[in-house]
Amino acid sequence: MVDIDFSRIETEQLTLPLFTEKKIQADVLRLDKMHPEISGNKWFKLRYYLEEARQQEKTNIVTFGGAWSNHLLATAAACQLYGFSCTGIVRGERPSTPSPVISRIEDLGMELVFIPRNEYRAGQVPGKQAGPRNYIIAEGGYGEAGAKGAATISDYIQDHHYSFICCAAGTGTMAAGLGRTGNVIAISVLRNNLELEEKIRKLGVDKLSVIHDYHFGGYAKYTDELTRFMNNIYQQTSIPTDFVYTAKLFYAVNDLATKNHFDLGTRLLLIHSGGLIGNLSQNKGTLIF
Ligand SMILES: *Cc1c(COP(=O)(O)O)cnc(C)c1O
């Protein structure tokens, strides 16, 4: 069992010539370093749900996700750490060869229930799994407690003068939390997820812009250009990114800077929200890290 090490969270400057040339500063908050599996934003989103489960004397955490879900993995690892049993309701049939993420989730002790795509409803617990011991967390940890937890990411932001906090957004829970303390730019990693903005605003945020132009074809989709970019960033800064979330964030910020989207003197903080385990689905040799 690997403990969470908050002391490893650090802020690094993203030293790319482009930013110097455009006279903007970009820092990265390395939440990916705190734990290999409860990585990045996931512990923050889970913390108040788990606290409430404990207060309500629930013993089993139930939540939802896909076959490569960072949220399921983080929940499984957190439940092992904090002494809950847990059930993951997975969208889609059990694959004949489980993804490395699925195998790891099961090793961590999460019971997995696979539901065919056409029957899967996020939030719906199948009859056999329903019960009074269950505490249910929405897919991706979306909700008020998730946003409240994500807002505590700001405890690790030492400098409060950033013009914008930039993050990748799936459910938008992290963006909603960050938006409670700063101006947020959220890069949507899903294609045409036009409800995202409203979902984030519902969690009580107004200083927000959502950008939909950097999904690279949709959730967990990528192009050669994106993987080349990931290798480039790694070569120049030694920062590894994941192709589902953080690479799209870094790419977006880089591209927006190229297109003079930011004023001179703009100070950006990019949230490295983890997710590196997802890169295991890439063909060997595609990434240099
Ligand atoms: C889950 C995840 C996100 C998205 O967080 P939301 O709160 O759902 O928007 C971003 N980055 C990484 C690495 C993630 O695993």
Structural overview:
Helix 2 (41-55) crosses helix 3, helix 2 packs across helix 5 and helix 3 runs parallel beside helix 4 (100-107). The protein has 289 residues and is α/β, with parallel strands linked by helices. The chain is 31% helix and 18% strand. The chain has nine helices and ten strands. It has helices spanning 17-21, 41-55, 70-82, 100-107, 144-151, 173-178, 196-202, 224-237, 246-258; strands at residues 11-13, 25-30, 60-65, 85-91, 111-115, 134-136, 164-169, 184-188, 208-211, 267-272. It is globular and about 60 Å long. The strands form two sheets. It has a six-stranded mixed sheet with strand order 1-2-10-7-8-9, with helices on both faces. Strands 5-4-3-6 form a four-stranded parallel sheet, covered by helices on one side. The relative contact order is 0.17.
Biggest sheet strand order reads: 1-2-10-7-8-9
Bound small molecules, deduplicated: pyridoxal-5'-phosphate
Total number of beta strands = 10
* Structural class by secondary-structure content: alpha/beta
Encode the helix/strand succession as letters. Answer: EHEHEHEHEEHEHEHEHHE
What fraction, in percent, of the residue positions are helical?
25-40%
Poorly predicted regions are none
Radius of gyration: 18 Å
Overall outline: globular
Mean pLDDT: 96
Q: Quick one: biggest sheet?
A: 6 strands, mixed
